[in-house]
Design a protein that fits this description.
The chain has 43 residues and is mainly alpha-helical. Helices cover 91% and strands 0% of the residues. The longest helix has 16 residues, at 27-42. It is rod-shaped, with a radius of gyration of 15 Å.
Amino acid sequence: MVYKYNLRNLSKMPCGRKRKRQKVATHKRKKRLRLNRHKKKNR
């Protein structure tokens, strides 16, 4: 319940929205970096 409340607040706030958009945009690059890190660990 608390989690849902927080999500609603974030959606209401414009700043949170902008932040969320940025996060999604940089998701691909972060994913690639994470994969690379895992590969190094496995080697």
